[in-house]
């Protein structure tokens, strides 16, 4: 012994380093499949229903006189705005679900980064890349 205590266990598992997920990251084939699945599901199961519901509510409010219609364009501008807000609300509401799908991937560097919390601790450029892929 050299005077220092060795506290490592002989059968201890060595943890792999967390991969760097940056703007130059290329997703694996499985990650691409999950990206496409998330995009499709967030559109059909969240964005379309929320956009349609917000447009119906807006039209109802205009019909009852609670909201006023535009003198020249009628209810169209408010309906378009409601549709866009519903679309983005639907996309944003699906982010957590999509993150869980990536966390459940076995051999995914992106999933590993999400499991370890790197997405929250990364720089703004890295966070934008991850959110852009998920949104």
Would you give an account of this structure?
With about 140 residues, this protein is mostly helical. It has a domain at about 75-100. It is about 65% helix and about 0% strand. It has six helices and no strands. The protein has helices spanning about 30-65, 75-95, 95-105, 110-115, 120, 125-135. α1 packs antiparallel against α2 (about 75-95) and α3 crosses α4. The chain is elongated, with a radius of gyration of 23 Å. The relative contact order is 0.17.
Q: What is the count of DSSP helices, taking H or I runs of 4+ residues?
A: 6
Rg over CA atoms? 23 Å
Instruction: Give the ordered list of helices and strands.
Output: HHHHHH
Q: State the end-to-end distance.
A: 55 Å
Q: How much helix, percentage-wise, in residues?
A: 55-70%
- Beta strands, count: 0
Unreliable residue runs: none
Helix/sheet category: mainly alpha
Largest sheet: none
Shape: elongated
Average pLDDT value?
Answer: 84
Which range does the strand content fall in?
under 5%
Summarize the structure.
This is OCIA domain-containing protein 1. The protein has 135 residues and is mainly alpha-helical. 63% of the residues lie in helices and 0% in strands.
């Amino acid at each position: 012994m050299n005077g220092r205590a060795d506290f490592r266990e002989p059968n201890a598992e060595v943890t792999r380093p967390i991969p760097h997920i940056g703007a130059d990251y290329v997703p694996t084939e499985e990650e691409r499949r999950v990206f496409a699945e998330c995009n499709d599901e967030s559109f059909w199961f969240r964005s379309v229903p929320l956009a349609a519901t917000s447009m119906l509510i807006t039209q109802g409010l205009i019909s009852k006189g609670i909201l006023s219609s535009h003198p020249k364009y009628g209810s169209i501008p408010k309906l378009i705005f409601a549709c866009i807000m519903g679309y983005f609300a639907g996309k944003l509401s699906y982010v957590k679900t999509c993150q869980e799908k990536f966390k459940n991937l076995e051999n995914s560097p992106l999933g590993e980064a999400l499991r370890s919390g790197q997405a929250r601790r990364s720089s703004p450029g890295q966070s934008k890349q991850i959110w852009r892929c998920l949104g």
